[in-house]
Amino acid sequence: MGRKWNNIKEKKAQKDKNTSRIYAKFGKEIYVAAKSGEPDPESNQALKLVLERAKTYSVPNHIIDRAIDKAKGGGDENFDSLRYEGFGPSGSMLIVDALTNNVNRTASDVRAAFGKNGGNMGVSGSVAYMFDHTATFAFEGYDADTVLEQLMEQDIDVRDVIEEGGLTIVYAEPDQFASVQQALRDLGVQDFEVAELEMLPQSEVELSGDDLVTFEKLIDVLEDLEDVQHVFHNVSL
């Protein structure tokens, strides 16, 4: 599976930041999901999914409501979903997912971020095949055996259930996100440290010295770009 605990630590750190940047990214994603169908999570599964993820990051209600109201009002802003793949120092690989209303701007910004920070853009498919699309959940209060029994009773197959760092972590197929989350809630899980759809690397690399400094700068620059929603990588941090 790769990068299990390191990945959870990263997601926990992002959640704890509660920054306006994270809220802005969710606002855009909620708007796009709401506009893709009915602006009602009960009839729009894409919207329901992003709202569940937003709760994990404590996104304020006014940001959620504003994004949905904008979609209800027939907002004329359209966004394209884009994926970029690239390489950093010493065998590091990155996947950059973006939502943008200006494809040329985003492509230029992402390319510049790679080029000025020790990286190189790759062609489509050059990196993604080394990652697995995965639904990830992390929470406290229930041991792995109890969780696995609950999931099996509801006929839900998962990739793995582990305990690490005081958390129980569940990895599942991405199309099982809603089913797994509901099963965990039925068990009694109220708060999730992580509830995300991710691209997890099949193997990871360790960087040190200047390579690590360069890589961390590259990640920071990419994540700060207005149009970038997610950055996934294969580096053990």
TrEMBL record:
GO cellular component: cytosol
Any one Gene Ontology molecular-function term assigned to this protein's record: DNA binding
Alphabetized UniProt keyword annotations: Cytoplasm, DNA-binding, Transcription, Transcription regulation
Origin: domain of life: Bacteria
GO BP term, pick one: regulation of DNA-templated transcription
A Pfam family hit: TACO1_YebC_N
Residues in TACO1/YebC-like second and third domain copies: 80-235
Main location: cytoplasm
Residue ranges occupied by any TACO1/YebC-like N-terminal domain in the UniProt entry: 3-74
Subcellular location: Cytoplasm
UniProt cross-references to HAMAP family, sorted A to Z: Transcrip_reg_TACO1 (MF_00693), Transcrip_reg_TACO1_YeeN (MF_00918)
Family listed: Belongs to the TACO1 family. YeeN subfamily.
Name under which the protein is recorded: Probable transcriptional regulatory protein GCM10007183_06240
